[in-house]
Amino acid sequence: MSLLELKNVCMTYGKVKALQDINLVVEKGEWLALMGPSGSGKTTLMNIIGCMDKATSGSIILDERDLSNVSKNELTSFRRDKIGLVFQQFHLIPYLTAVENVMIAQYYHSMPDEAEALAALDRVGLKDRATHLPSQLSGGEQQRVCIARALINYPMLILADEPTGNLDEANEEIVMKIFHELHAEGHTILTVTHDMEVGKQAEKCIIIDHGRIAESKYNR
Amino acid sequence: MLIALLAVAIGATIISGMVTVYYDAPQQMGREFRSYGANMLLVPTGDQQWLAESDLQGVMGLLPTDKLVGIAPFLYEKIKINEQPILTAGTDFDQVQKVSPYWQITGKWPATGSKEILLGAELAERMKIVPGQSLILTTGAEQTETKAVVAGIVRTGGKEEQFAFMDLSLLQKLLQKNEQISLAQVSIVANQTELQTLADKISEKNPMLAPRLLQQVAHSEQTVLKKLQALVFLVTIVVLLLTLICVATTMMAVVTERRKEIGLKKALGADNKAIVLDFLGEGCVLGALGGVLGIALGFFFAQSVSINVFGRAIAFSPMIALFSLFVSILVTGIASLIPVRIAINVEPAIVLRGE
Question: Which of A182, B19, B320, B325 has its CA 20 to 30 A from that of A55?
C-alpha cells in the first residue's frame, strides 16, 4: 500500500483553477521532487498534502486514511502526527533557542524532551549550537534546526518547501547531504523546488505546470 | 505587552482604591457628618415632662462606645435674667462640644460647676451684653437672685442664639429640679437603618424614653453617601471598560504581530484549544501581574485619599485585594477573547507563505 495517493485532486480559488486532476502516488521511502515555475501550483499541492489546506475535489489518501472529508481539527491532528515540515523561510521562533525551537514541536505533539531534541540537533550537526537564538545562527544552521524540528516527532512524510531557496551554495550542499542521509535511512521525502539541481537529487521528479502534472520522471 | 500590563495595573489600582473608598467612605463620612450635630433626640414618653439624668447612663450602655460621639443633656426653663424672661438651658458643656462642634464661641465656654453663663448671639445683642459682664438670675417662687458672669457668646446659626446656657447642675439647683432633664441630644456614627435599630433598642429597654431620629440629618447623610457611592461605582465601571478596551487593543496588536508564530504553531500541530490556552494563559498571567501591582498602588491611593480627606488611615483589606485580583484576571480574560478569536482563525498555509 502506498503512503500517499492523490486521485483527481482539484483546487480552485474563485474562478482560478490552481490544481486540476492531480493524480500522484508516493511510496514509503521514496524521495520526490515537485518542480515547476512560480505560480504553477506546487506550493498549493504541498499545502494540501501537508494537511494545511483542503482540496476542492478529489481524494487524498495518506497512510490509508482518506483526508478529503475530515474536519479541520482532524487535519491538524494528522499533520501533527504524520508530517514533518521544512520551510524555505525556516520559521523559527526568534525568542526561543535552537533546542527550544525543536522542543516546541514536541510540546504540541506529546511531551517536550530536551535530550531527544538535543539528539535531533546532533543528527543535523548542531548540538553545540543548541542554546543559540536563531539570530545567532547562519541561514544554513537555521535550516538545519528546521529539519531537526521536522524530524523530532518521527513523521511518516517530510515535506520540504524550497529547503535550499534561501541558502548559499555551501549550506545548500550541507542541507542536501542531510536529505540524502534521511532518504538512505528510509524516510519518505517530498521537496518542492524550482531549482533543477535540487530537483535532480530526488529519486523522482514531478513537473507541474498550470496546475497540472506535466511530466513525471525518475532521475536514476 | 508592557502597555497592556500598565493598563491592567492602572485599572486594578483604580478598582482596588475605589472599592476601598467605596466601603470605607461611609464610615469615614459618618464621622465627618457628626460635626454637623446630633442625629437622635431622647425625649420623655407620653405626658411626662422630664427625664431622669440617670436614664442616660442606661442608654450609654446600649450604644456602641466606638461609635458614640456624645450625649448632651438639656434642661429647658424660662428664668429671669436681668429682669427679662429668657428661655434658658442647663447642659453639660463638655458633651455639647462633642455633639455640636459647630458652635462658635466668642469668649470662653463656661467652666463645669461654675456660675458662668453662655448667651446666644441674638440674645446678647438684644440685651447689649458682652463676655465678662455680670447678670442677675431670678428663679423660683421666692424670686431668689443669683449672680452669674457671662463667659461667652455663642453663634450657631439656629434658634440657640436666642437662648442662655448654663451648667446643668446650676440650673437644676436654681429650679430645684435635681436629676431632671428635658431631653438629651445624641450624636452617633451610624446610618439611618442602624440608628433606627438603636432607637428601637433604647425604647425597648427604657420605656420612659422616646428616641426620635433627626430624620432630616440622617436622611441627608444617607443621600450624600449613596450619591458618593454611586459616583465611585460609576467611575470604577468606566475604568474597567477603558482597561478592557486597552487590553483588548493591545492583545489584538500582539496577535497581529505574532500571526507568523501562531501560523507556525498551527503548522506544527497546535490545535485551536492549544492556541486559546496559550493566549488566555498569557492574558491571565498579565491580569495577575497587573492586578498585584494595582492592588499595591490602589492601597496607597486609598490610604492617601483617606489620610488627606478624612485624616484617618485605613487598614489593608485582603478581601478587597482578592476581589481586585479576580476582577483584573477576569477583565484581561474577557479582553483576550476577541484577539483569541483572531488567533484561532489564522490559516497556517497563508501566513507561512508570507501573505
Answer: A182
